Prior knowledge:
This protein has helices at 22-29, 44-47, 51-74, 95-113, 122-134, 154-200, 203-217, 226-244, 254-262, 270-292, 300-315, 325-334, 336-341, 355-371, 378-393, 398-417, 431-450, 475-484, 494-503, 521-531, 537-543, 557-564, and strands at 15-21, 36-42, 83-86, 489-492, 546-551, 569-574, 579-583. It is α/β, with parallel strands linked by helices. It has three domains: 15-86, no CATH class; 95-431, no CATH class; 475-583, no CATH class. The radius of gyration is 29 Å and the shape is globular.
Amino acid sequence: MPGAQTQAEVGDAKPIHYQVNGFGLLVKMGVECGNPISLEFPSYLLIAGRGRQIRIALSRLTTLIMINSFLAYLGVSHNLNPVKLNIGVRTRLTTRMLWAVALITVVFTFVNMSQIAPNDFWWHMAVGRDILATGQIPAVDVYSYTMAGQPYLSYQMFWLMDVWLYGWFSLGGAELILFIQSLIITATYLIILVLCWQNSHKWGVTSFCLIFTILLGIYAWNVRPQAIAFLIGMIFLYAIYAYRRGANRAWLAVFPLGMLVWVNSHGSFLVGLLLLGIWLGDETWQVYAAWRKGKRYSFQQLMTAAVILLLTTGVCTLNPRGMGIISYLITMTSNPAVQNTVPEWLPPSFTSPIGPIYFISILFSAVVLALSPRRPSFYQLATFVAFAALGLWTTRGVVWFGLVMAPVLADHLSAIRGGIPINQQLLIPNQKERFVNSGILCLLISLALISLPWFRGLIPMRADYRSPITQDTPVAAASFLVEQQPDGRIFNDMAFGSYLIWAAQPDYKVFADPRIELFPQDIWDDYQVISRAAPGWEQKLVDYEIRTLFLNPSVQGQLVQRVAGSDQWRLIYQDETAQIYQRRQ
Length: 585
């Protein structure tokens, strides 16, 4: 295929080069591609009249041109450097390629082997269940007694992914959910791999940039609605690169169609508009630069980017709240409880797990752009500034910086390294290397298969890791609560609230849960007073008419200690995860 080099040396015969340009043949097929391919074979074939070998060579060349045209139509091979193809031996997996394959396998395996945490998953499942059961999206809170009947905008924001998650869970349980999650995350990083390879044509650089983006994103791979946003965002990014390289205009349909899904799945849809805005800014800059230099310029690309941005922005209104979606974003970005208490909404710091890595990545990216012999484009500089600022504002933006900067770094790291033509990236390994590479590939495939969630029990690991659900999910305690039906309202650990919404509705409504923005600050203040057994905690329980405590001893240790020593409460359930106390009569 284009970009591959095979070696079939025959003595010292000098090769005759026949340059064939795909454009001439592809025009007849209705496909435009300007990627030249050269066919190289020894001159003795002509002298000896070996017509069969020549026919085979030409047949292979024709097949390669057809493949090249199809890939160019998709935007995959456009603008690849001219390469020479020596007929005789097929290209095989090289060690450099194997690094990239190994990294993608690690991503797939890691997500498969992860577990579903209780915090921000189960209440989404409950909403999806209720939407399918009632045929409508909830408008007010029905899961807590502290905010019962109050409007909650997030139902309209996540409804599509809530239905999606519940649908897959109904078909195959938590194992299928993890598998779907692994496919989404792996596809996201596979797109990054392709973009990095297209920008660098060096497997070593591609693998390095893939590691860069994985390190900045691994913290965000947990199962929740935002996962689909990563995939759609990278499809947007790929479509921008592909179209600007001359791919078919059909790629432009990705933006409005993708946004229709994105805006009904997660609030990060503004990232898609940011990507399109940077594209429009770059096209505007190119027109301006051409005007300043007195060169001729075309407005076609500029108008295309502007129309796509306007159309995609219009699609953002195709959600249950229409233009009211803006009020949701304002609420989330200005809510003090969200901004001050949720770690992922706080700016990264040197004491946060991802902070030091992110700061180093910004510095590294700046150094690469400064040292690169290739002048950074407006698009690349705008991408760096905009997404670095997003990551500095909120930890949620760190993963996006890694995703969008990887292809940019691949471009400039390739320029810095320089000197290695594309055909040397694909040299045929010797027999020993082929054997080793094939063995490693088989191991990687086996690792990916054995990591599937249905096979977790076959892997030697701690018992608490064999379940697709984390041990801190109160599954058994919630079952006891529903079966025994202790009377009165419950006070629960906030993280437990998500699972209680899923497992204990409608019998028990929660005091609080991970829907942070739903509850006003005074509710969270009361929650903290009770959870820490601060002065006045007992009176708070009386004020809220709470008769049952559903506690997490690992985070509410002080409260557990005070309740256990009180004659007002009795322990009715206990396991490694939760304790349930009931008020004495």
